[in-house]
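re: the backbone from monday

yeah here it is again, tokenized this time
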């Protein structure tokens, strides 16, 4: 563990920067600066980043409080769920960085208050394709353990799974792709695209699975893998990626979980660069 935590204002600044960097990159199927889609406006995501930064980085707050209050600030401003997944992934990173602890140790201390606050935030956001669960349904009272609730959903939701695995996907997929992209000389925006594509090709996107089914999510993963086999990101293949983007959006497919993990990867990398030892 690191001995000294980061300042909350710096954490908020790095969070906002990670959110905006993700929006600037070409991410097939998602909302980004290169093309509109899914009846969402880019400005709403910028506003969401601006207004959720303060509650996400609030000094002394727990994981659940940061998620709940970040969602509340977002919904009050833009009236739709633009960042629930981002907040769920970034809140433990923010707490770990502030307290000078690892992410795994923060997850080990989650309690009933965190569960109650997170469930309230999820209900407020009302994410698309949420459906119902046999146990720990968010429409019911929160359980005594947030980790137990996440474990129950881990087989169908990659973000919930992160709470069980200690965020293993971020270093194994996201940070690995970021290192490879930097080694290849890609500029920051294309490094972000590389992160997003790495998640898309590595695992079926759980947001796609919730909305369209597991087979569709696996089909998207294979489609992305096939597309990437013929392109080099160093050549900035805008046309090829925009064609994939248009195809996915034409089928109302939005790999939002991959985008959320992209933000989390950028945030983790920025926090580590500022001195946090999250793993």
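seq for it, each position gets an aa:
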């Amino acid at each position: 563990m690191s001995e000294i935590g980061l300042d909350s204002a710096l954490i908020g600044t790095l969070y906002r920067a990670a959110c905006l960097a993700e929006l600037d990159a070409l991410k097939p199927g998602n909302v980004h600066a290169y093309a509109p889609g899914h009846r969402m406006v880019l400005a709403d995501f910028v506003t969401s980043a601006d207004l959720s930064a303060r509650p996400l980085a609030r000094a002394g707050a727990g994981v659940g409080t940061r998620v709940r209050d970040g969602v509340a600030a977002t919904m009050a401003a833009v009236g739709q769920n633009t960042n629930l997944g981002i907040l769920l992934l970034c809140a433990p990173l923010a707490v770990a960085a502030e307290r000078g602890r690892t992410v795994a140790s923060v997850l080990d201390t989650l309690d009933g208050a965190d569960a109650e606050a997170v469930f309230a935030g999820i209900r407020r956001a009302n994410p698309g394709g949420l459906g119902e669960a046999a146990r720990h349904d968010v429409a019911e009272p929160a359980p005594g353990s947030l980790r137990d609730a996440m474990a129950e959903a881990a087989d169908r939701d990659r973000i919930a799974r992160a709470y069980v695995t200690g965020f293993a996907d971020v270093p194994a997929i996201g940070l690995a792709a970021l290192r490879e992209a930097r080694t290849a000389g890609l500029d920051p925006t294309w490094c972000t695209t590389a992160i997003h594509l790495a998640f898309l090709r590595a695992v079926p996107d759980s947001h796609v699975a919730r909305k369209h089914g597991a087979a569709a999510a696996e089909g998207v993963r294979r489609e992305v893998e096939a597309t990437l086999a013929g392109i080099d990101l160093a050549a900035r293949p805008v046309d090829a990626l925009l064609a994939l983007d248009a195809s996915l959006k034409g089928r109302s497919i939005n790999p939002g979980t991959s985008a959320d993990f992209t933000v989390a990867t950028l945030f983790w990398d920025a926090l580590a660069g500022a001195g946090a030892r999250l793993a």
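The chain has 14 helices and no strands. Residues 172-257 form one domain.
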